[in-house]
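Notes to self after the call with IL:
- keep both proteins in one doc
- input above output, always
- annotate only the second one for now

Protein 1:
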Amino acid sequence: MREPGLPTLDQLRVFVAVIDCGSFSRAARELHRTQSVVSYTIANLEAQLNVELFDRSKRKPTLTEAGRALLADARTVGMKVDAMRARAKTLAQGLEAEVSLAVDVMFPNCRLVQALKAFQQEFPTVGLRLRIEALGAVMHLVGERVCQIGITGPMLDFSDTFQHQQLGHITMVPVASPDHPLGKMTGIIPTEVARDHIQLVLTDRSQLTAGQNFGVIALRDWRLGDLGAKHMLLLNGLGWGSMPEEMIRADLESGRLKHLQLAHMVSGQYSLHMINRVDEAPGVAGRWLMQYFVDHPPEAEQ
């Protein structure tokens, strides 16, 4: 058996497009080619690799076992080339005019302020656009190219669209006002008791987490799009919920809020990740800002 030949990048992109589009005809429309050209390209790729990628006995393109194994390789090659081209583009352009950043609402404000001040001092001529969002909204903004860099939470899987690295975590604490029925209880609070009281829950303006509930156990909940509003309602005894420890530390120390000893959760870790699109590498200033966040993780001592 002869050795496999060297496939072209175009052949690999057509291969991936057929699978992503679901048919040869749709891939042809997506690639602005005729269906016969797409079919010819796939046939040449199979000849180069010396394997059959598709089962021709079925109407819809169905991968063979070899095709499934090689599809992941084809995607990886495409992503690596996209990343290299994006990086080359930023190197050729030099210092960018603007950096856009989307940050999860749970990220500590003090850390964010430090990063923004350091950025402005390092790059006084580079504009900075900032969005603060909850849950899947950060990933949505980066995925839709509204923002170049995102700091997002733990609740979503990262697709091949994104490069990502873990930034650390923050501690989430379930709390209520001392005037709230749960705040008046001592010892471990059973889950069935907490379930009977309104839980204040942060909601998502994107559709990426639609239908998903993260840590919601109550039979009744109030959905809030703003962490400050949630904080205000907690202080006024209008429900219970989890908050970043850094944000409510003074409230716990002064007694304005009480740490609830829930049977199902005493405290939890909320992991944070930094993301950017594979095909849009940040420029010089953007990469500096990303490295600053890596060097100053949210859980480090102030």
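Protein 2 (the one to annotate):
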Amino acid sequence: MSSEALAGGRRRAPFKPSQSLIVLGVTLALFVVLSAALPGFVTLGNLFTLARNISILGILALGMAVVVIGRGIDLSQIATLACSSAIAVTLINGGWPPAAAIAFGLVLAILIGVMNGYFVSVIEIPPLFTTLASGLLVLGLTRALVVPHYQVFLQPGHEFLLMLGGTVLGGVPVPLIAFAICALLLHLFLSRTVIGRFIYAHGDNAQAARMSGIATRPLTMIEYALSATIGYVGGIIMVGSTSLMHLQVVESTMIFDVILVVVLGGISLVGGRGNVLSVIAGTLLIGVLLNAMTIMNLDIQTQDIIKGAVLLLAIVLDSYIHPRDEETAKQGD
């Protein structure tokens, strides 16, 4: 046999970049174009603003990624973080120690997540309807019992919370550091722990995971609890950045921005695929895009049109790359 034939037999398959790497490349190209086309885009002040804004969006997307990898979706995430944070701020204003109030809000967020997971896994209500209803329920109860005027302001004297929205090391935003820590911890959890591997198996094929002995019902509750917990971290950082929590954020398009980041970055809606790098890639692209639209002073309707078109394109791309079949179309459809 000739040496060419031997070399051909050992020839490796051509490199096929992942969706997250493609998105990172598109982000780099877009950044270069916007730097040349938009005055003020590459200024230090705008870059720090960009880093601050994408950090909170990225933290929320990390939480959503856990649920989507497990082949679910959490439309209540923004309501959970907003209401839990608003209640925590109300308790702080009422004289509670900040640590105790923040811990109470965290427990509340976890309970909402566990409740979502219970209805999805035990009652077997589709996650789309479960989380939509629970978000409305949580928002309604919070407005009726705690924050009737949509917003609650953090009273002066709580510098620790304000530090969460500040800067360190000569201007590095604290939210960016929080995003990096959350991303690292979630990466280690998904890639190095048994539960993390179970989440991928659950999303890839829920029935096979159940038959192999994985307790999928408690696992689903863990997935939604993690989404709520990580989202709550983002909510507390939002309070530190603005000194208030405005419940109208629940009625904004933020939840669609979070889903857009997740899907665009390469975390498939069919479950079992994607990782933290996918979230980082999607966060960078959407953050750059939103920042550019703000600098161009585009109206809200135009921004919604662009974001809607990008989200639809991302869903179509996900359906093309990861087609559904009888084995994958079990939970979350």
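Annotation: The beta strands are 151-153, 167-168, 172-173, 244-246. DSSP finds 14 helices and four strands in the chain.
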